Protein backbone atom coordinates (compact mmCIF):
# COMPACT_ATOMS: atom_id res chain seq x y z
CA UNK A 1 0.00 0.00 0.00
CA UNK A 2 1.53 3.31 -1.08
CA UNK A 3 1.69 6.40 1.11
CA UNK A 4 -1.18 8.04 -0.65
CA UNK A 5 -3.43 5.09 -0.03
CA UNK A 6 -2.39 4.93 3.63
CA UNK A 7 -3.02 8.60 4.27
CA UNK A 8 -6.40 8.37 2.55
CA UNK A 9 -7.40 5.37 4.65
CA UNK A 10 -10.43 5.57 6.84
CA UNK A 11 -9.85 7.64 9.94
CA UNK A 12 -12.47 7.96 12.65
CA UNK A 13 -13.01 10.09 15.69
CA UNK A 14 -14.32 13.43 14.41
CA UNK A 15 -17.13 14.92 16.48
CA UNK A 16 -20.69 14.14 15.36
CA UNK A 17 -21.52 15.84 12.06
CA UNK A 18 -17.85 16.81 11.54
CA UNK A 19 -16.60 13.70 9.73
CA UNK A 20 -14.21 14.58 6.87
CA UNK A 21 -15.63 14.03 3.37
CA UNK A 22 -12.46 14.29 1.32
CA UNK A 23 -9.06 12.60 1.23
CA UNK A 24 -7.50 15.91 2.21
CA UNK A 25 -9.85 16.21 5.16
CA UNK A 26 -8.94 12.70 6.30
CA UNK A 27 -5.24 13.60 6.09
CA UNK A 28 -5.82 16.70 8.23
CA UNK A 29 -7.81 14.70 10.78
CA UNK A 30 -4.99 12.11 10.87
CA UNK A 31 -2.41 14.88 11.40
CA UNK A 32 -4.46 16.34 14.26
CA UNK A 33 -4.80 12.94 15.99
CA UNK A 34 -1.05 12.24 15.61
CA UNK A 35 -0.22 15.67 17.00
CA UNK A 36 -2.71 15.16 19.86
CA UNK A 37 -0.91 11.92 20.81
CA UNK A 38 2.35 13.84 21.24
CA UNK A 39 0.74 16.82 22.97
CA UNK A 40 -1.30 14.74 25.48
CA UNK A 41 1.57 12.28 25.94
CA UNK A 42 4.09 15.01 26.76
CA UNK A 43 1.92 17.45 28.69
CA UNK A 44 -0.89 15.35 30.13
CA UNK A 45 -4.54 16.23 29.62
CA UNK A 46 -4.77 19.29 31.86
CA UNK A 47 -1.70 21.09 30.50
CA UNK A 48 -2.29 20.09 26.88
CA UNK A 49 -3.91 22.75 24.68
CA UNK A 50 -5.75 22.83 21.41
CA UNK A 51 -3.29 25.43 20.10
CA UNK A 52 -0.42 23.10 21.07
CA UNK A 53 -2.05 20.36 19.01
CA UNK A 54 -2.65 22.52 15.92
CA UNK A 55 0.90 23.95 16.13
CA UNK A 56 2.37 20.43 16.19
CA UNK A 57 0.04 19.35 13.36
CA UNK A 58 0.93 22.42 11.28
CA UNK A 59 -2.72 23.30 10.74
CA UNK A 60 -4.75 26.41 11.51
CA UNK A 61 -6.72 26.59 14.76
CA UNK A 62 -9.92 26.71 12.70
CA UNK A 63 -9.09 23.30 11.21
CA UNK A 64 -9.28 21.81 14.69
CA UNK A 65 -12.88 22.99 15.08
CA UNK A 66 -13.71 21.68 11.63
CA UNK A 67 -13.34 18.19 13.12
CA UNK A 68 -13.64 18.45 16.91
CA UNK A 69 -15.87 20.28 19.36
CA UNK A 70 -13.40 20.47 22.28
CA UNK A 71 -10.22 19.21 23.97
CA UNK A 72 -12.32 16.51 25.62
CA UNK A 73 -13.61 15.39 22.23
CA UNK A 74 -10.16 15.04 20.67
CA UNK A 75 -8.87 13.19 23.76
CA UNK A 76 -11.79 10.76 23.58
CA UNK A 77 -11.16 10.27 19.84
CA UNK A 78 -7.46 9.74 20.52
CA UNK A 79 -8.04 6.92 23.04
CA UNK A 80 -10.22 5.10 20.51
CA UNK A 81 -7.73 5.86 17.73
CA UNK A 82 -4.75 4.44 19.68
CA UNK A 83 -6.80 1.41 20.60
CA UNK A 84 -7.61 0.90 16.90
CA UNK A 85 -3.98 1.51 15.86
CA UNK A 86 -2.78 -1.25 18.20
CA UNK A 87 -5.48 -3.59 16.90
CA UNK A 88 -4.59 -2.86 13.25
CA UNK A 89 -0.86 -3.22 13.91
CA UNK A 90 -1.08 -6.62 15.60
CA UNK A 91 -3.94 -8.13 13.54
CA UNK A 92 -1.99 -9.07 10.36
CA UNK A 93 0.81 -10.73 12.43
CA UNK A 94 -1.79 -12.69 14.41
CA UNK A 95 -3.64 -13.76 11.25
CA UNK A 96 -0.42 -14.93 9.58
CA UNK A 97 0.69 -17.10 12.53
CA UNK A 98 0.51 -20.89 12.10
CA UNK A 99 -1.19 -21.63 15.46
CA UNK A 100 -2.72 -20.06 18.56
CA UNK A 101 0.46 -19.74 20.62
CA UNK A 102 2.43 -18.43 17.63
CA UNK A 103 -0.35 -15.87 17.16
CA UNK A 104 0.03 -14.62 20.75
CA UNK A 105 3.79 -14.46 20.25
CA UNK A 106 3.49 -12.48 17.02
CA UNK A 107 0.88 -10.16 18.54
CA UNK A 108 3.04 -9.40 21.58
CA UNK A 109 6.12 -8.80 19.42
CA UNK A 110 4.20 -6.34 17.24
CA UNK A 111 2.68 -4.70 20.32
CA UNK A 112 6.07 -4.07 21.98
CA UNK A 113 7.36 -2.79 18.63
CA UNK A 114 4.40 -0.40 18.41
CA UNK A 115 4.90 0.76 22.00
CA UNK A 116 8.57 1.55 21.36
CA UNK A 117 7.51 3.84 18.51
CA UNK A 118 4.56 5.29 20.45
CA UNK A 119 5.60 5.36 24.09
CA UNK A 120 2.93 7.99 24.75
CA UNK A 121 0.22 5.33 24.41
CA UNK A 122 0.59 4.30 28.06
CA UNK A 123 0.14 7.81 29.45
CA UNK A 124 -2.84 8.40 27.17
CA UNK A 125 -4.72 5.17 27.94
CA UNK A 126 -3.83 5.43 31.64
CA UNK A 127 -4.92 9.06 31.89
CA UNK A 128 -8.24 8.09 30.30
CA UNK A 129 -9.03 6.33 33.61
CA UNK A 130 -9.39 9.83 35.06
CA UNK A 131 -10.27 12.06 32.10
CA UNK A 132 -12.63 9.73 30.24
CA UNK A 133 -13.43 6.57 32.27
CA UNK A 134 -15.84 5.22 29.63
CA UNK A 135 -13.09 5.18 26.99
CA UNK A 136 -10.69 3.54 29.45
CA UNK A 137 -13.15 0.80 30.24
CA UNK A 138 -14.13 0.35 26.59
CA UNK A 139 -10.48 -0.02 25.58
CA UNK A 140 -9.78 -2.89 27.98
CA UNK A 141 -13.21 -4.52 27.68
CA UNK A 142 -13.01 -4.70 23.88
CA UNK A 143 -9.36 -5.82 23.95
CA UNK A 144 -10.26 -8.61 26.38
CA UNK A 145 -13.22 -9.66 24.21
CA UNK A 146 -10.96 -9.78 21.16
CA UNK A 147 -8.43 -11.96 23.02
CA UNK A 148 -11.19 -14.22 24.34
CA UNK A 149 -12.50 -14.74 20.81
CA UNK A 150 -9.13 -15.60 19.35
CA UNK A 151 -8.27 -17.95 22.24
CA UNK A 152 -11.61 -19.73 21.76
CA UNK A 153 -11.01 -20.01 18.01
CA UNK A 154 -7.55 -21.47 18.70
CA UNK A 155 -9.10 -23.90 21.19
CA UNK A 156 -11.68 -24.95 18.59
CA UNK A 157 -8.82 -25.74 16.19
CA UNK A 158 -7.14 -27.81 18.92
CA UNK A 159 -4.14 -25.44 19.16
CA UNK A 160 -4.64 -24.70 22.85
CA UNK A 161 -6.57 -26.07 25.82
CA UNK A 162 -10.31 -26.40 25.32
CA UNK A 163 -11.37 -24.57 28.49
CA UNK A 164 -9.98 -21.11 27.70
CA UNK A 165 -12.14 -18.16 28.61
CA UNK A 166 -12.29 -14.69 30.06
CA UNK A 167 -9.82 -15.32 32.90
CA UNK A 168 -7.18 -16.47 30.41
CA UNK A 169 -7.87 -13.48 28.17
CA UNK A 170 -7.44 -11.00 31.04
CA UNK A 171 -4.28 -12.83 32.12
CA UNK A 172 -2.83 -12.59 28.60
CA UNK A 173 -3.86 -8.93 28.30
CA UNK A 174 -2.28 -8.07 31.65
CA UNK A 175 0.89 -9.89 30.71
CA UNK A 176 1.09 -8.01 27.39
CA UNK A 177 0.39 -4.61 28.94
CA UNK A 178 3.05 -5.04 31.63
CA UNK A 179 5.67 -6.52 29.31
CA UNK A 180 5.01 -3.55 27.01
CA UNK A 181 5.50 -1.16 29.93
CA UNK A 182 8.73 -2.79 31.11
CA UNK A 183 10.37 -3.62 27.76
CA UNK A 184 8.71 -1.06 25.50
CA UNK A 185 8.36 2.13 27.57
CA UNK A 186 10.80 1.86 30.50
CA UNK A 187 13.80 0.21 28.92
CA UNK A 188 14.57 -1.31 25.53
CA UNK A 189 17.39 -3.38 27.03
CA UNK A 190 16.25 -6.59 25.33
CA UNK A 191 15.09 -7.32 21.76
CA UNK A 192 11.31 -7.46 21.57
CA UNK A 193 11.58 -10.75 19.67
CA UNK A 194 13.27 -12.32 22.71
CA UNK A 195 10.60 -11.06 25.10
CA UNK A 196 7.82 -12.37 22.84
CA UNK A 197 9.60 -15.73 22.52
CA UNK A 198 9.95 -16.12 26.30
CA UNK A 199 6.35 -15.05 26.89
CA UNK A 200 5.09 -17.51 24.23
CA UNK A 201 7.04 -20.34 25.83
CA UNK A 202 5.41 -19.40 29.15
CA UNK A 203 1.97 -19.39 27.50
CA UNK A 204 2.66 -22.79 25.96
CA UNK A 205 4.10 -24.56 28.98
CA UNK A 206 3.25 -22.51 32.07
CA UNK A 207 5.62 -22.46 35.03
CA UNK A 208 5.60 -26.19 35.83
CA UNK A 209 9.03 -27.90 35.93
CA UNK A 210 10.18 -28.92 32.44
CA UNK A 211 11.29 -32.46 31.72
CA UNK A 212 15.12 -32.40 31.79
CA UNK B 1 -2.77 -9.93 67.59
CA UNK B 2 -5.30 -7.68 69.36
CA UNK B 3 -6.59 -4.40 67.98
CA UNK B 4 -4.32 -2.39 70.19
CA UNK B 5 -1.27 -4.18 68.89
CA UNK B 6 -2.39 -3.76 65.29
CA UNK B 7 -3.06 -0.05 65.65
CA UNK B 8 0.28 0.43 67.37
CA UNK B 9 2.09 -1.41 64.59
CA UNK B 10 4.80 0.36 62.68
CA UNK B 11 3.40 2.90 60.25
CA UNK B 12 5.65 4.77 57.86
CA UNK B 13 5.30 7.69 55.51
CA UNK B 14 5.50 10.79 57.69
CA UNK B 15 7.54 13.64 56.21
CA UNK B 16 11.22 13.81 57.24
CA UNK B 17 11.61 14.71 60.92
CA UNK B 18 7.86 14.25 61.52
CA UNK B 19 7.79 10.52 62.37
CA UNK B 20 5.39 9.77 65.25
CA UNK B 21 7.08 8.80 68.52
CA UNK B 22 4.10 7.46 70.45
CA UNK B 23 1.46 4.77 69.92
CA UNK B 24 -1.15 7.53 69.83
CA UNK B 25 0.84 9.36 67.16
CA UNK B 26 1.06 6.21 65.08
CA UNK B 27 -2.72 5.73 65.35
CA UNK B 28 -3.29 9.30 64.16
CA UNK B 29 -0.89 8.83 61.25
CA UNK B 30 -2.70 5.56 60.35
CA UNK B 31 -6.07 7.35 60.47
CA UNK B 32 -4.76 10.13 58.20
CA UNK B 33 -3.42 7.63 55.65
CA UNK B 34 -6.69 5.64 55.65
CA UNK B 35 -8.68 8.85 55.19
CA UNK B 36 -6.30 9.97 52.43
CA UNK B 37 -6.96 6.70 50.57
CA UNK B 38 -10.70 7.46 50.51
CA UNK B 39 -10.25 11.16 49.71
CA UNK B 40 -7.77 10.63 46.83
CA UNK B 41 -9.67 7.56 45.62
CA UNK B 42 -13.00 9.41 45.44
CA UNK B 43 -11.85 12.86 44.32
CA UNK B 44 -8.57 12.28 42.49
CA UNK B 45 -5.39 14.15 43.38
CA UNK B 46 -6.31 17.59 42.06
CA UNK B 47 -9.73 17.84 43.71
CA UNK B 48 -8.65 16.17 46.95
CA UNK B 49 -7.92 18.52 49.85
CA UNK B 50 -6.05 18.34 53.13
CA UNK B 51 -9.17 19.53 54.96
CA UNK B 52 -11.14 16.72 53.26
CA UNK B 53 -8.60 14.24 54.60
CA UNK B 54 -8.61 15.56 58.18
CA UNK B 55 -12.42 15.74 58.20
CA UNK B 56 -12.63 12.08 57.13
CA UNK B 57 -9.96 11.13 59.67
CA UNK B 58 -11.70 13.04 62.47
CA UNK B 59 -8.52 14.91 63.37
CA UNK B 60 -7.66 18.60 63.56
CA UNK B 61 -6.03 20.30 60.56
CA UNK B 62 -2.94 20.90 62.71
CA UNK B 63 -2.52 17.15 63.20
CA UNK B 64 -2.03 16.79 59.46
CA UNK B 65 0.95 19.14 59.53
CA UNK B 66 2.35 17.32 62.56
CA UNK B 67 3.06 14.43 60.17
CA UNK B 68 3.05 15.78 56.61
CA UNK B 69 4.41 18.83 54.83
CA UNK B 70 1.89 18.96 51.97
CA UNK B 71 -0.78 17.23 49.89
CA UNK B 72 2.03 15.92 47.66
CA UNK B 73 3.78 14.43 50.69
CA UNK B 74 0.72 12.55 51.94
CA UNK B 75 -0.04 11.27 48.42
CA UNK B 76 3.53 9.98 48.06
CA UNK B 77 3.28 8.35 51.50
CA UNK B 78 -0.07 6.81 50.56
CA UNK B 79 1.29 5.13 47.40
CA UNK B 80 4.08 3.53 49.44
CA UNK B 81 1.61 2.64 52.20
CA UNK B 82 -0.82 0.91 49.81
CA UNK B 83 2.08 -0.93 48.21
CA UNK B 84 3.17 -2.11 51.68
CA UNK B 85 -0.40 -3.02 52.68
CA UNK B 86 -0.73 -5.29 49.64
CA UNK B 87 2.65 -6.88 50.38
CA UNK B 88 1.75 -7.47 54.04
CA UNK B 89 -1.68 -8.85 53.14
CA UNK B 90 -0.43 -11.41 50.62
CA UNK B 91 2.87 -12.39 52.33
CA UNK B 92 1.48 -14.73 55.03
CA UNK B 93 -0.69 -16.60 52.49
CA UNK B 94 2.29 -16.99 50.18
CA UNK B 95 4.55 -18.20 53.00
CA UNK B 96 1.97 -20.76 54.16
CA UNK B 97 1.52 -22.31 50.70
CA UNK B 98 2.96 -25.79 50.08
CA UNK B 99 4.64 -25.01 46.75
CA UNK B 100 5.42 -22.25 44.26
CA UNK B 101 2.21 -22.46 42.21
CA UNK B 102 0.08 -22.73 45.34
CA UNK B 103 1.87 -19.61 46.60
CA UNK B 104 0.91 -17.66 43.46
CA UNK B 105 -2.65 -18.89 43.81
CA UNK B 106 -2.87 -17.86 47.48
CA UNK B 107 -1.24 -14.50 46.75
CA UNK B 108 -3.68 -13.70 43.94
CA UNK B 109 -6.67 -14.76 46.03
CA UNK B 110 -5.59 -12.47 48.88
CA UNK B 111 -4.84 -9.67 46.41
CA UNK B 112 -8.31 -9.77 44.84
CA UNK B 113 -9.79 -9.94 48.34
CA UNK B 114 -7.79 -6.85 49.33
CA UNK B 115 -8.82 -5.01 46.16
CA UNK B 116 -12.51 -5.70 46.82
CA UNK B 117 -12.12 -4.02 50.22
CA UNK B 118 -9.91 -1.21 48.89
CA UNK B 119 -11.10 -0.53 45.35
CA UNK B 120 -9.48 2.92 45.53
CA UNK B 121 -6.03 1.32 45.28
CA UNK B 122 -6.22 1.23 41.47
CA UNK B 123 -7.02 4.92 41.08
CA UNK B 124 -4.30 5.84 43.58
CA UNK B 125 -1.49 3.75 42.05
CA UNK B 126 -2.60 4.67 38.52
CA UNK B 127 -2.79 8.39 39.30
CA UNK B 128 0.75 8.19 40.72
CA UNK B 129 1.92 7.75 37.11
CA UNK B 130 1.02 11.43 36.67
CA UNK B 131 1.26 12.94 40.15
CA UNK B 132 4.35 11.12 41.43
CA UNK B 133 6.04 9.07 38.68
CA UNK B 134 8.89 7.95 40.98
CA UNK B 135 6.44 6.28 43.37
CA UNK B 136 4.60 4.67 40.46
CA UNK B 137 7.80 3.21 39.08
CA UNK B 138 9.04 2.15 42.52
CA UNK B 139 5.77 0.33 43.22
CA UNK B 140 5.95 -1.85 40.10
CA UNK B 141 9.74 -2.27 40.12
CA UNK B 142 9.78 -3.52 43.74
CA UNK B 143 6.71 -5.71 43.19
CA UNK B 144 8.37 -7.30 40.14
CA UNK B 145 11.61 -7.86 42.08
CA UNK B 146 9.66 -9.52 44.89
CA UNK B 147 7.90 -11.83 42.40
CA UNK B 148 11.19 -12.62 40.63
CA UNK B 149 12.78 -13.60 43.97
CA UNK B 150 9.95 -15.88 44.99
CA UNK B 151 9.77 -17.52 41.54
CA UNK B 152 13.53 -18.15 41.66
CA UNK B 153 13.24 -19.59 45.18
CA UNK B 154 10.43 -21.87 43.97
CA UNK B 155 12.58 -22.90 40.99
CA UNK B 156 15.48 -23.68 43.33
CA UNK B 157 13.14 -25.98 45.29
CA UNK B 158 12.13 -27.68 42.03
CA UNK B 159 8.51 -26.48 42.31
CA UNK B 160 8.57 -24.66 38.98
CA UNK B 161 10.69 -24.48 35.83
CA UNK B 162 14.36 -23.66 36.41
CA UNK B 163 14.59 -20.80 33.90
CA UNK B 164 12.18 -18.35 35.53
CA UNK B 165 13.19 -14.72 35.55
CA UNK B 166 12.12 -11.14 35.08
CA UNK B 167 9.87 -11.77 32.05
CA UNK B 168 7.87 -14.35 34.02
CA UNK B 169 7.65 -12.00 37.00
CA UNK B 170 6.28 -9.14 34.88
CA UNK B 171 3.87 -11.57 33.21
CA UNK B 172 2.58 -12.76 36.60
CA UNK B 173 2.35 -9.19 37.92
CA UNK B 174 0.43 -8.04 34.84
CA UNK B 175 -1.91 -10.99 35.11
CA UNK B 176 -2.58 -10.24 38.79
CA UNK B 177 -3.12 -6.51 38.25
CA UNK B 178 -5.60 -7.08 35.41
CA UNK B 179 -7.48 -9.90 37.14
CA UNK B 180 -7.71 -7.60 40.18
CA UNK B 181 -9.11 -4.83 37.98
CA UNK B 182 -11.67 -7.08 36.27
CA UNK B 183 -12.79 -9.27 39.19
CA UNK B 184 -11.96 -6.98 42.13
CA UNK B 185 -12.79 -3.44 41.00
CA UNK B 186 -15.13 -3.71 38.01
CA UNK B 187 -17.33 -6.61 38.94
CA UNK B 188 -17.41 -9.14 41.76
CA UNK B 189 -19.45 -11.55 39.64
CA UNK B 190 -17.23 -14.54 40.46
CA UNK B 191 -15.73 -15.76 43.76
CA UNK B 192 -12.10 -14.69 44.08
CA UNK B 193 -11.18 -18.26 45.02
CA UNK B 194 -12.40 -19.45 41.59
CA UNK B 195 -10.41 -16.77 39.75
CA UNK B 196 -7.26 -17.64 41.71
CA UNK B 197 -7.80 -21.35 41.02
CA UNK B 198 -8.19 -20.82 37.28
CA UNK B 199 -5.16 -18.50 37.16
CA UNK B 200 -3.05 -21.01 39.11
CA UNK B 201 -4.00 -23.79 36.73
CA UNK B 202 -2.95 -21.51 33.86
CA UNK B 203 0.37 -20.81 35.62
CA UNK B 204 0.92 -24.51 36.15
CA UNK B 205 0.01 -25.79 32.70
CA UNK B 206 -0.02 -22.84 30.32
CA UNK B 207 -2.41 -22.77 27.38
CA UNK B 208 -1.20 -25.93 25.60
CA UNK B 209 -3.86 -28.58 24.89
CA UNK B 210 -4.45 -30.81 27.92
CA UNK B 211 -4.31 -34.59 27.59
CA UNK B 212 -7.95 -35.73 27.41
TrEMBL record, chains A, B:
Highest taxon of source: Bacteria
Coiled-coil spans in chain: none
Residue span of region Disordered: 1-23
Keywords, ordered alphabetically: DNA-binding, Transcription, Transcription regulation
Residue ranges of every copy of the HTH tetR-type domain listed in the record: 26-86
Ranges of the DNA-binding region feature: 49-68
Alphabetized InterPro entries for the sequence: DNA-bd_HTH_TetR-type_CS, Homeodomain-like_sf, HTH-type_TetR-like_transc_reg, HTH_TetR, Tet_transcr_reg_TetR-rel_C_sf
Protein's UniProt name: TetR/AcrR family transcriptional regulator
